[in-house]
Amino acid sequence: MSEINKPKKGIAKKIDDFKALNGKDKASFIGNWLLDRAMIIIILLLVLYIQSVKPAFLATASIVNIISLTATRLPIALGIAGAIILTGTDLSAGRIVGLSAFVAAILLQKGDFAGRFLKDGNPWPIFVVILIVVAVGAIVGLVNGFCVAKFKLHPFIVTLSTQLITYGAYLTISSAKQISQLDTSFTENFVTKKIFYIGKQVAVKDGVEKVINPGTPVMLYVFLAVIFAVVMWFIWNKTTFGKNMFAVGSNEEAARVSGVNVTLVIIGVFVLAGASYGYTGFIEAARQGASTGTTGLNYELDAIAACVIGGVSFVGGIGKISGVVLGVILMQLIMTGMTFLGISGNTTYIIKGAVILIACAIDMRKYLAKK
Amino acid sequence: MEAQSNTINNGAVNRDLLIMEGISKSFPGVKALDNVPLTVKRGTVHALMGENGAGKSTLMKCLFGIYKKDEGHIYLDGKEVDFKSSREALDNGVAMVHQELNQALKRSVMDNIWLGRYPKIKGLPFVSESKMYHDTMQVFKELKIDDINPKTIMSTMPVAQRQMVEIAKAISFNSKVIVFDEPTSSLTEKEVEHLFRIINMLRDRGCGIIYISHKMEEILRISDEVTIMRDGQYVATKPAKDLTMNEIIKLMVGRELTNRFPPKNYVVQDEVILKVEDMTAMYSHLDSVSFELKKGEILGVAGLAGAGRTELLENIFGIATKKRGKMWLNGKQIYNKSPKEAIANGFAMVTEERRATGIFGILNILDNTVIASIKKYLIKGLFLSNKAMEKSTAWSIDAMRIKTPSQTTKIRALSGGNQQKVIFGRWMLTAPTIFLLDEPTRGIDVGAKYEIYQLIMDMAAEGDSVVIVSSEMPELLGICDRILVMSGGKLAGEVDAKTTSQEEIMTLAAKYV
After folding, report:
1. Which of A238, A253, A265 to mutate to test the interface with B (most CBs of B within 10 A)?
2. Complex confidence, ipTM
3. Hey, is the C-beta of A205 within 8 angstroms of any chain B C-beta?
4. How far apart are CA B16 and CA B43, in angstroms?
5. pTM assigned to the model
6. CATH architecture of B259-346+433-513
7. Of the candidates A3, A4, A240, which has its C-beta nearest B118's C-beta?
8. Rounded to whole angstroms, how far apart are CA atoms B199 and B217?
């Protein structure tokens, strides 16, 4: 056994370690440090560039917008991150969002709307609907997890199949009808309820207050997303289930011989992911005021990209909630930034693709042992 | 065996902690275990020996419920048990330290130790990190492990430390019976001593230890009793003090092995075939190694784990990136930037991790044999000739004495020794002049080892040169002409295999540690 060394802790130790290096090693240390954070650095440079060209980019309204959009995409990314930590993936996410958005929309259409999808009746109680859509997502997740865990199929294949099945089920039931005219108890009185305004400007003239600018509203779903992330943080870091998830992702066999019920962990991860998609569908229906055939389309790709940018590794067993949050924000910054620059939607795809490639390459670099 | 049945009937108070009797297990076409008994007494170390394929692992898997035994009974503390999973075995005080480290590498030490049984914060569904840390420290203190921080991520630690974590984990279950499966394969001498102290402590506590190893010296030193198995059958159980190495080998292979090493009947020539100068690796700690290799010479490379032996071979063969260093083959300077270039220059390398970097497990013998010389079998540079490939494979099976039902058998179905012979055959087909062998007999049973030694000797006798890295000192002393000793990435010295001693080599190996 080697000498016991009582190292300094934290940053002090890191600084000492760095000082101990020689010139060439210092350079490579800095190089590696930068490369490990290359994605964030690139995006921040991009943000600075956009800001210099279009100063409105980082105005209050725009920032609130970016945060709001982040909030809509965060739960789905947190769900998918679990699947990635298991060295899997989940392609069914977007279509589950679509299906659950549809379910939420038909249950919460205005009671007096003549074109209601469900002919009779009134909007259902909102919390019952939440439970139903979360259950819808969880059930598809259960199928995903069951097939992955029991039949040992690759998640790619399983979720590709359930993606098609889910979409087919949606089309069959809905006949591809758009469901709009949603009840206000669902939309502006709940999900898109304006909690407060940022940047409200008031002028006082002759003792009378006059609102010049009402400011940008922050809506309820942003807070819900924060709560969601906090709950997920506890599940990942503080529960047996969370720790088992990382262990299974890191070495399934080791977890098995240690007595972890691997099947149950895998199913649990996919059920949790499915539930998060169901919840996202609920939010999306309210936010867009309708459910259509394209609701949720390709959301899984954005979510996977955000996870990868945020350091959730396909190597398995690695990922942090903070990383996912950062990844979603960065992804949203790119999207919004491109809109500001007037880049067409077509080009956006090219940039998204490049971002995923670069992020994965940089991530993989960390796990390759050089010889 | 009747005697054993009687001891059970004789009542609860006896020294027998674990009794397995009449264990049989068949797989399609093979009877892996045939009516095998094993009795482990309280407070003893019981070695389980046998060649690969003798049924040791199968017996242990039946104990742990990984395999369902066809017949037989298992009694623990006088009560019959029938574990359905390794977890159930653990909960009943039967633990195993696995040979192949099965760990969640991206998680911390304590996460690994308590995996599957994380302590909870009272009344909450949350895991108590502080209790995990405290309990881990407790276990480490008990075992006098003082150089591992429970919060360290496993992948950042050397294999030997990871092995100690695995041992600590097994012991943390407060197990009554602990199985050690080849626990010393990745440990240095010093760590082996530490492990033996731990085992002695467990023995004093009254635990029953089952110790599986191929290393005879260890077995004779640490164990009280030895059970020997052969071809799925029980051969004998004897007190270790009554056994000698030769007797064990005789019982294991079923015939007398008069010599562990084939005789040398060739002369090393004076002609230097390979000269290596100042070899230094870019990404590992190989530092300025120079040596010469003569025609027809078997040159051993000794050293502790981490001494840079594998790195030396990898740099010569072009797997690793060189920082600096020059090589001359027959007086002509070469570089070996990649394995491809090395092969073209007449080098061949048998890697250390056979399963990871040697065999293609799901491919058959033929595919595994022709892969390094595949271009030889092209007809008009376009299509591969089955006939030519089959002919070469047949030659290899014959020349290497590979025991296989057919060329189309998947290589993973063969024993370790036969897999290694397939790899030797693969390289023979590239007609090399220099063989680099990294632990060529690791995990191979005694009988097959002898055959591998014979193959190595044959190569040398034909004028080819061999560089062999091995952690088994007797092996190096038995087959090499000269031995290089490495220490801390540097060349610590060079000794003549005929006149040196294990002590001299060990002293050199510790030079730069």
Report:
1. A238
2. 0.71
3. no
4. 10
5. 0.77
6. 3-Layer(aba) Sandwich (3.40)
7. A240
8. 16
